[in-house]
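Structure (tokenized):
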């Protein structure tokens, strides 16, 4: 059980740092979720230390998430929802957070359809095309 809690902790902290910035609301959300996994509802010194010392540099979310790939789909979806809630905690949405969520979903064996409303609803190439259409045309060549 402890290994799974540590893995969940790392996934949630990875989510908190996905945009390269840890907000207090994200840290609080991570702590709240982890406390519900503990029998006494308390994080304890070891888990508190793990949160404080987490480093996003070199963290491989896909590798950690793969530990849950054999869980039921409902359990994997629940984990993904918890990860998404960490992103939502700071009420800021970032493409890096979305990429993180999609990487975790893929490692959990979930499809983009499974991610659904948890991911930003966009298509980068479609947005680029739309922006290109809005770009002003060059001025006409003057008649001589």
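Design, position by position:
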């Amino acid at each position: 059980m402890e290994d799974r809690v540590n893995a969940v902790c790392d996934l949630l902290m990875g989510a908190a740092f996905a945009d390269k910035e840890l907000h207090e609301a994200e840290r609080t959300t991570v702590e709240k979720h982890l406390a519900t996994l503990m029998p006494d509802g308390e994080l304890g010194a070891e888990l508190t230390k793990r949160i404080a010392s987490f480093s996003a540099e070199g963290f491989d979310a896909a590798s950690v998430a793969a530990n849950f790939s054999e869980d039921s789909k409902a359990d994997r979806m629940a984990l993904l929802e918890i990860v998404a809630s960490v992103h939502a905690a700071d009420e800021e949405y970032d493409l890096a957070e979305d990429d993180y969520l999609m990487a975790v979903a893929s490692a959990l064996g979930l499809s983009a359809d499974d991610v659904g409303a948890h991911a930003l609803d966009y298509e980068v190439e479609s947005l680029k095309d739309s922006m290109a259409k809005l770009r002003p045309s060059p001025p006409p060549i003057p008649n001589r």
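Reviewer-requested clarification: The chain has one domain: 2-134. The two ends are 81 Å apart (CA to CA).
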